[in-house]
Structures are given as structure tokens and as C-alpha cells.
Amino acid sequence: MPRLTSSNRQRTAVETSPLSSLPLQGSVHNLTAQSLPNIGIVEGSLTEKIVGELWSAVENAKNEPVSLKGSLAGNITESLVLDHSARILKDFTTEVLPGFIKLYLEKFGGPPVKYISLKTNDYNFVLDKLWVNFQNKHEFNPLHDHSGALSFVIWMRIPTSHKKQAELPHIKDANVKQFVSNFCFNYVDILGNLKTFAYGMEKSMEGRMVMFPSTLNHQVYPFFESEDQRVSISGNIGLEAI
Ligand SMILES: [Fe+2]
Predict the structure, then answer these.
(1) How much distance in Å is there from the Cα of 144 to the middle of ligand 1?
(2) What is the pLDDT of residues 39-94, one digit of tens each?
(3) Confidence at residue 29, expressed as pLDDT on a 0 to 100 scale
(4) How many whole angstroms from 57 Cα to the centroid of ligand 1?
(5) 6 falls in which pLDDT band (50, 70, 90)?
């Protein structure tokens, strides 16, 4: 435990160890640690039924491909528009998305949209864009944010294990190896320090969906030594005045 000391005789050393010997009993009431409020994210795992419907939408997009690469940051093989009005996605758009948004509103009060002077009940949420990303080895998605109020990502196929990726010869001795192949949020803490929240990419993440404020920066690091394609679905939800 740290010990506060000083050469200044006006100061008093504060001994903090061992904790159990501190004279708290009778001196302090309700001693608590408090995290300062911040905006967060919502995540959950989709059912096999919903994931199957999303795969059907992906197959439809491959049959009539409309590329979205020109308007996206990703340095990846392809991103295709998904038809979010298709009947096959009805459960996703009428159950999954509202469920995620509802929890987001309950927990965080509303989307952190700047420069829009709408009162809480003055708008509806609308799914603006939905697309699928195909990422091969060595490809990446640089630090970026999205348009809209809330955005989301769904990991559909993860062909690699980030734990195994971290053991690759060019990574295993590195000082920083926790990011390889992973999806990361980047944000500043209350002291202005840049922080990274990484989702470790494993097969077990397939079907996992994360909803986040659209302007929250994020990036995807490359994976190596796998010929399989990584597939994710992304979307942007905007606001529409009532
Ligand atoms: Fe993104």
C-alpha cells in the first residue's frame, strides 16, 4: 500500500497499511468509492433465430451487392448495404433494436447528440443504415466514429482467437499484445487520459451485439494467419422529429 510521507515537518505521514488496522470504526460513516458518471454502452447476445435471419440478409446482399466502401473508414475487403426494410429482418428491427435502445435510454438518459435541441419525447429513432463487413487477414478498420445518434456492431463470424493471435511470433514478445485482432473503443477518462476498452475476439463472440453512442471512437485491429473471412454487421440509428 502507498504511504504518504514528506520531508516537510508541517505535514503528517499517513499510514495506509494494513487497511484492517485503520481507525475507521467510529470515525467515518458510509465510506464509499464513487465512479463519476459517464456515458456507456449496451450489449447482449442474439438468439440463433435472429442470427439466422441476419445471415439471410447477408446472403441477399451478396446476391445483389451494393458496396458501401466509399463512405466507410474500413481498410477491408468489402462492406455491403443490407436491406433493413426486408421482412426477414422484422424481428431484428422491431424487437432487438428497440430493446437495446430502451435499455440505453433507461441507463444513460438519451443519446448524446450534440447541437440538436430536441426534447426527450420530440423524436423517434430510425434505422438509417445497415451494412455487413467482410474482413480478411491483415485488413483493419482505423480509428473512426459514425453518423447518427446510436450505432451498433454485431459479430457474425470470428475465425480467430485473440489469445492465440497474441502468441504469434511477431506479437508474443511485444509489450502491448492485447489488441491484436480485437475491436476496441477509445475514449478519455476524467483526467483526459486516453483509454482503450478492448473486446477479445473469439468464436464465442459470434452473435454478440454492442450498441454505443455513434460518436464514440472505435477501431478494429487486423488478424493474421487465417484464410477465413471475418464478418460483422454494423448500423446507424438516427433521430427523426415527430
Ligand atoms: Fe465503426
Answers:
(1) 6
(2) 899 999 999 999 999 999 999 999 999 988 888 888 888 899 999 899 999 999 99
(3) 82
(4) 19
(5) low
Centre of ligand 1 from the C-alpha of residue 27, in Å = 50
Question: Is 119 in a helix, a strand, or coil?
Answer: coil
What is the number of residues in the chain? Answer: 242
**Domain 42-241 classified CATH 2.115.10.20?**
no
45 alpha carbon to ligand 1 midpoint, in Å? Answer: 19
The domain locations on the chain are 42-241
How far is CA 117 from each of CA 114, 121, 123, 197, 238, rounded to the nearest angstrom? 8, 12, 11, 30, 14
Distance 41 CA to ligand 1 centre (A): 14
What's the CA gap between 69 and 82, in Å, rounded? 13
pTM, two decimals, is 0.87
CA of 91 to the centre of ligand 1 (A): 23
The conformation of residue 93, written as its DSSP 8-state character, comes to I
Bond preceding residue 65 cis, omega within 30 of 0: no
